[in-house]
Amino acid sequence: KSFLNHTAYLSCYFPNSQKTDINDLRVFWQKGDVEVVHEVYYGQEKHDNLSPKYINRTKMDMDKWTLQLLNAGIMDEGQYRCIIQHRDKGSPKVIHTSECLLHIIANYSQPEIAWLHAGELKPNEYLSLSCSSSGGYPEPKQMTWLVSQENTTYRLMRHMDVSQDAVTKLYNVTSKLNITVPTNTLTNISCLLHLGEQLGSLVSVPLGI
């Protein structure tokens, strides 16, 4: 995983147990089956075969056998393959391949609750709220509303509207909630954006009614 516009680190996982000299190896990285991302040709960086979008965006750390992909963007997501060949009696022989999958992450803004309601609140009327968060990636799982009264918290699931910016590919999300105005009870309403198992959740500032 890499944050948007940061450096992504892709490892070859090459143990080099034979302590082979770098000058006897050809190391190249591919994305998918066609795009050449980086090439070290018997100790020398080689740029002839590179896909144009990777020129001047990659660096290879030969001590750690790790490729640095600079300014990683959403278009860089996908499967990468590292292939290492050894110059053996003149004809190169593949001695190692490995693959890694790159996922890009962009932070969503803190969810924010807005009133969709004009005028004074009256008991037992409907209260309309929306909750929004923007500028994130990947697409979130869901948005949950939390309504707390006294010692009880209710979880309410509502439809989440998702839109994706055509240029940046970042997502904006909104969910709406209609509830009756509570009488004589302090009610706190929050909304929770679920980003997925490994990314956790973001919660809004609670709204007190």
UniProtKB/TrEMBL annotation:
Q: Which residues form the signal peptide?
A: none
Chief localisation class: membrane
Provide the Ig-like domain boundaries.
1-98, 111-191
One Gene Ontology cellular component? external side of plasma membrane
Q: Which UniProt keywords apply?
A: Cell membrane, Disulfide bond, Glycoprotein, Immunoglobulin domain, Membrane, Receptor, Signal, Transmembrane, Transmembrane helix
Which Pfam families does the entry mention? Answer: C2-set_2 (PF08205)
An example GO biological process term is: positive regulation of T cell proliferation
Subcellular localization:
Cell membrane
Q: Membrane topology type, per the record?
A: Single-pass type I membrane protein
PANTHER family named among the record's database cross-references: T-LYMPHOCYTE ACTIVATION ANTIGEN, T-LYMPHOCYTE ACTIVATION ANTIGEN CD86
What is this protein identified as? T-lymphocyte activation antigen CD86
The protein's organism comes out as Gavia stellata (Red-throated diver)
The top of its lineage is:
Eukaryota, Metazoa, Chordata, Craniata, Vertebrata
